[in-house]
Amino acid sequence: MTTVSPPRRRAAWLLGPALVAGVAYLDPGNVATNMSAGAQFGYLLVWVVVLGNAMAWLIQYLSAKLGVVTGQSLAETLSQRIRSPWGRRLFWLQAELVAMATDVAEVIGGAVALWLLFDVPLVAGGVITGAVSMGLLWIQTRGGVRPFEFVIIALMAIITIGFTAGVIVGPPDVESAVAGLVPRFEGSGSVLLAASILGATVMPHAIYAHSALVRDRFAPDVEPDAAGPGRIPRLLRATRWDVTIALVVAGAVNLAILLLGAANLPGVPGTDSLEGAHAALEASLGGIIATVFAVGLLASGLASTSVGAYAGSEIMRGLLRVQIPMIVRRVVTIIPALAVLAIGVDPTQALILSQVVLSFGIPFALVPLVALTAQKRTLGSHRNRWWTTAVGVASSAFLIALNAVLLWLTFAG
């Protein structure tokens, strides 16, 4: 029987923060958008999912690098750079609105999943989703970083199974999928969906969360094996592997959702909503696949809303320098989501509006991140190389422009 050497075992033990942050790429909003893209345009937008995932890799790595090298989150670093108290408050306000919009989408996703699985009313489903997320946050605050990571990674595994099972039962056409890697559009509808996919790929709260996750994870009192000579280079190597694994999983699942729609639901109406996609899957592939999909959706809502609440707590603590118990904050921030469900807003419409709010927050997270990681006074010898900064600037400009297009198309009808 072979045994794993201690250094390799310790290296594997450093993985995890990116997998937690990567849950943001598998939230209910991404599910609805990718499914709709596949059902409406077949394999046309495969290249968009791949491109978005590549840009997300760089952005998440820069966020993690900032946390590893400085020992601070992005919110904490910005708090030190923004000297004006009112400037910090205004910056916090937009970031807080983004975090709350994210929470609305994720709680709604969990509520819809409970309705699909057990006929639970949407408001009650929202309460249950919030209660479970509070339990997960209690694990993080009381049990520590690693138990929280294990739970989120387990939910990520359920998400992966739930959203890829249909592709195994109804496999896509390989040649058509490969042809979808060639960038092209077919009409304004495909442009809108491409903007939606890319605009929702990099979530602002995931950027704030990742830097905080590595800070908490690699603190010397939490991860003593990570201390010692060469600590930062070793952590950065582990982080690159961590981000790569997380984004490969998230990218593969998002691609599988699009391929599921393209192969099994071409031209089927109603797939632009979560409940419509579930009904279409049941009619096309049977009740088992539809149920597995709903279970994946439930895991997606539970995991993503927990990580979103963690990010919101970090944004408040870092920018306002105010420490509020995460459970208390969870109770407060779930109120908007429950209000949306209670007044009868269409869940799909609420998801779309939440993505619009997220679009406003993209520049405020991306631009400072690229700028800070390029500065010698921030990261010293670990600052970005010129070409990394150039790619980061290009990716940021592209994502910001696409979010602007998404906003214009949304408000223009």
Labels describing this entry:
413 residues; mainly alpha; disordered N terminus
Word description of this protein:
The chain is about 80% helix and about 0% strand. It has about 425 residues and is mostly helical. Helix 4 packs parallel to helix 11, helix 7 crosses helix 14 and helix 13 runs antiparallel to helix 14. The longest helix has about 35 residues. It is globular, with a radius of gyration of 20 Å. The termini are far apart.
* End-to-end separation: 64 Å
Arithmetic mean pLDDT:
86
Q: Please state roughly what percent of the residues sit in beta strands, choosing from under 5%, 5-15%, 15-25%, 25-35%, 35-45% or over 45%.
A: under 5%
The level of helicity is: over 70%
Low-confidence stretches: 1-9
Quick summary of this structure?
The chain is an all-alpha fold and 413 residues long. It contains 18 helices and no strands.
Give the helix/strand layout.
Layout: H1 6-13, H2 17-21, H3 28-41, H4 46-70, H5 74-81, H6 85-118, H7 122-143, H8 145-169, H9 174-179, H10 188-199, H11 204-217, H12 231-264, H13 274-285, H14 287-320, H15 326-342, H16 347-373, H17 376-379, H18 386-412
Helix pairs in contact: 3-10, 3-12, 4-11, 4-12, 4-16, 5-14, 6-7, 6-14, 6-15, 6-16, 7-8, 7-14, 7-15, 8-12, 8-14, 10-18, 11-14, 11-16, 13-14, 14-15, 16-18
